[in-house]
Amino acid sequence: MFTRRTFTLSLLGAAAMPQAVLADTFEVTRTDAEWQAMLTDLQYQVMRHEATERAGTSPLEKNYADGVYHCRGCDLVLYASDTKYDSGTGWPSFYASLRNAIGTKADNMLLRTRTECHCRRCGGHLGHIFNDGPAPTGKRHCLNGASLVFKAA
User: Fold this and answer.
1) Residue 5 and residue 100: Cα distance in Å, rounded?
2) CA neighbor of 56 nearest in space, from 103, 88, 30
3) Which domains does the chain have, with CATH numbers?
4) N or C: which end of the chain has fewer CB within 10 A?
5) Is the pTM of this model over 0.90?
6) What are phi and psi of 26, to 5 degrees?
7) What is d(CA 77, CA 18) in angstroms, rounded to the nearest whole number?
8) Which residues are catalytic, by number?
9) Residue, of 92 and 21, whose pLDDT is higher
């Protein structure tokens, strides 16, 4: 019998599922062991468990060379260097992603709703999008450098 309690428990269980369990909705999928083998511990925690690297620790934060930023998990091109700017936050920041590069979802982990962004192809966690960025979008894609690979032009 399907009761209100059963329904509530099933919703809570679905919400608590780790991202790796939901990974079959992405084009690129790997087992947890495969992700761990290809990523450092920090990269794995950030990309697969939505952790955040410490501010100011990514060498990509101050990188302003011409090129593109790829997903570390599947090599999809995500951001162009001409949309990168110094947000003063300690993380690489962009005002826009490339078309069809990222996906978003609501993140309610810190008692307020934020917009989380991830690679649309492998689901790797990238960071969050805020509404305090520069023109022309007014957005700040505040990303973990651990999720990105820079390739010079």
Assistant:
1) 39
2) 88
3) 23-152 (2.170.150.20)
4) N
5) no
6) -110, 155
7) 25
8) 142
9) 92
